[in-house]
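Memo to structure team: turn this sequence into structure tokens by end of day. - J.P.
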Amino acid sequence: MMRTPRLVDVALPAEPIRIVRAPRTHGFRYLLRRYARNRLALVGLWVVLLIVVLAVFASWIAPYNPIKPDFFNTLAAPSSNHLMGTDDLGRDVLSRVLFGTRISLLAGVISVGIAVLIGLPLGLISGFYRGRLDDVLMRVTDAMLSFPFLVLALALVAVLGAGLDRAMIAIGIVFMPAFIRLSRGQVLSEREANYVEAARAMGAGDGRIILKHILPNILSPMLVQASLSTAAAITAEATLSFLGLGTQPPTPSWGSMLNFAQPYLSTAPWMSIYPGLAIFITVLALNLLGDGLREALDPRLR
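Reply from structure team:
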């Protein structure tokens, strides 16, 4: 009688367990990778960094004194001695453009800083508490936004007086309503979120909820708005300086350089070409930077 062979269980080697990590959707490196996907934004970032370096080291890079006239070299065409030529007083255009970079960046950063420091807290308080304060603040904001930007800036400078410091204050006040409305709108959407209700249930006060929970979650759109507003502030400062209400001579400013170049558009076009290019390149780079930040920080675009 044949016996049926018995099956023997053979232990097979276990396959190694592979741990698949989910891609990171937060952190600085992740945001940097998202930002780098936009090649134009990356170019804008490098151009902005270059402009900042030129502004910081203008004293070492500029070949000549930007305010010292040289009446023996008036309206000299671009050459090896003066790469961008000279103006009607013999001053080196390249040196004045480099030092004008300082003025433009300073005006843009300080003006937007004033707008953020005033507009952000007002928007936070208005959106969080609502009520009569919110109604009054929004009506004032709407009234300011109803005026054309340049008209309101000119009116404020006329009241405050001419000068770079007064022009920066005026530009900051003009930009303030945009930050008030933006921060208020963000707070209105965040104040009803679950994490706010949880913090309130745990006994957190209004101040802690605003500063520790709501504020960090609305900084991304504020940062994007600030970068775009900096470009607009540089244009506004150049406009006011062109009209004689911003930076006062002999301090070099791109706007005032364009003003002085008006009578020489046909005989010495380099006096207007290079300051105009400086404004164009700086504003374009900042706008590209702002667009890249918006794409990198907006969770809806991820």
